[in-house]
């Protein structure tokens, strides 16, 4: 039994290796969101703290629609990527079929990147954002359900 867990947690395991890769891609994507927020703040001269104001002529401002759009996209990442990290890791531990697992991880990552692109970078009308959201949510939910069923 212990050896089986060690094998699942080995970087020789293609499922774990794919999970690590796509999780790292999503970490980089979320870090990019912080930079995108900062870029929007400087572009629109919208700063939330007095010490951040580059000029005494500017005032603290909280309601710029472009900054808030990026912040909402970032918050949506936190609400969806963090559960993927947990569900994906647990899914790796139940020894899933590699082809299915690898493509689920890939689908979540591509969907989250697409979600940011259509929500915060190049705004595209619905259903683009909803499709990207659900193509990330459904695989994560599937993995979590598979783990629950495995443990029953």
UniProtKB/TrEMBL annotation:
MF annotations from Gene Ontology: glutathione transferase activity
Primary localization: endoplasmic reticulum
SUPFAM superfamilies: MAPEG domain-like
Lipid bilayer topology: Multi-pass membrane protein
Pfam families in UniProt: MAPEG
InterPro entries membership: MAPEG-like_dom_sf, Membr-assoc_MAPEG, MGST1-like
Bilayer-crossing regions: 20-39, 78-94, 131-149
Statement: the UniProt record of this protein carries the keyword Zinc-finger: no
Enzyme Commission identifier(s): 2.5.1.18
Entry GO CC: endoplasmic reticulum membrane; mitochondrial outer membrane
Keywords: Acetylation, Endoplasmic reticulum, Membrane, Mitochondrion, Mitochondrion outer membrane, Transferase, Transmembrane, Transmembrane helix
Record localization: Endoplasmic reticulum membrane; Mitochondrion outer membrane
Family indicated by similarity: Belongs to the MAPEG family.
Subunit description: Homotrimer; The trimer binds only one molecule of glutathione.
Role summary: Conjugation of reduced glutathione to a wide number of exogenous and endogenous hydrophobic electrophiles.
The protein's name: Microsomal glutathione S-transferase 1
UniProt source species: Hermetia illucens
